[in-house]
Amino acid sequence: MTVRYSSTFLKISNVVWLCCLANFINSADRVIMPIAIIQMAEYFKWTLHEQGMILSAFSVGFLSSMVIGGSAAKKYGGKFVLSLSVILWSMSTLFTPIFANYFYITIFLRILLGVGEGLGLPTIFHIFSHVVSQDERSTAFGYLIALGSIGQTVSALACPHLPWSFMFNFFGLLGIVWVFVWVISYKEYRDPINGDEEEFVQPPKFIGHSVHWREFIRHWPLWAIYIAHFSMNWSNYIIMQWLPTYLSRYLGANETEIMYTAFPYISNSLLGIGSGYLADKLIRQHWSIISVRRLMTFIGLVIPGLFLLIFSSAYNVTLSVIYISLSMGFSACNSAGHLCNHAEVAPNHAGITFAISNTLATIPGILAGPLTAELVIKSGGRWFPVFTIAGVMNIVGAVIYVSQSSATQII
């Protein structure tokens, strides 16, 4: 097999940065609605349950397309599938302000946004497994997660001070521009022996062309990744969907204080980059890969879980934002932990294993809207049960990952 990519990070930076920029747009699009819905709900007279339906509709589409994304990238190539993905989510974002007064069309567009973004991340994982070498993987994934957090930060800072329709239009158009740049800039290289297969910068130990679906669910190291991802997303979806509403309606935050919802994403992006560099440095210093993955996942789940428990007892806006920022910041360590682990245990099928993992990890996104609303209503307006469950979930996920994970190729 001829390898056309140098393992030097500078050589692959164009591909990595374009994928990171796609995740920036992806994440910004995803956060617009949880902030804009405060204004939209008042204007369109949506109830709390209707708001929950709109917020969770994204996860329905995300869940439905995830595995398709992983398989499609392997069959049709990362370039085509990622282009299709960004077109879908950008068009749905552009159309949202146009049809916002139609409740069920709005839900449909949120589902379509989820479908597009569900195709996107597994495809990026597929691309990274091919073009990023093992000792640079944590850094690449760190930047990927960080750019996503920066996109969320931009939305959180800008949305409260702009007409809610402007951000939908801006990021929708930005996605369309991205597609043109991507199509022109990225060239896929194919194995000269098997032209249907994309080449690897570091060929895996063995390459299997046909794997039975049972292989993706029968190995405990894969389930360790799936469970860790599920636990991480349980708390992340609650924070992403409900933090602005929580600060505004429970703690009485004003319009300026709602801007504080940007700080968790800033801390997430900074620690995401830092943890990536640290993890790769430890690997170059001859730490075993599995030790690094377990350390980063343990930090990325346990510490955020503890801060969520503390956050649930805070009763002023400033302290609450500090605690949730620390929680989200340390959560970024997962980018150098279990999120990198796909490319090690299943390098030929990283897009598919990530798709399965993210499909399972999207279930909290579907439940976070209606379940949170129900828990808060049944608890007489108290949010304590919501954040306690999320914190405990993180700690359980960390214990399972540390005890069951592996960095050895299994499929």
TrEMBL record:
Its main location: membrane. CDD domains: MFS_SLC17A9_like. Pfam families: MFS_1 (PF07690). It is a multi-pass membrane protein. One of its GO terms (molecular function) is secondary active transmembrane transporter activity. Keywords: Membrane, Transmembrane, Transmembrane helix. GO terms for biological process: monoatomic anion transport. One of its GO terms (cellular component) is membrane. It is found in: Membrane. Gene3D superfamilies: MFS general substrate transporter like domains (1.20.1250.20). InterPro entries: MFS, MFS_dom, MFS_Na/Anion_cotransporter, MFS_trans_sf, SLC17A9-like. Coiled coil: none annotated. Residues 15-409 form the Major facilitator superfamily (MFS) profile domain. This is Slc17a-12. The chain crosses the membrane at residues 54-73, 80-99, 105-128, 140-158, 164-184, 223-243, 263-283, 295-315, 321-340, 352-371, 383-402. It comes from the Eukaryota.
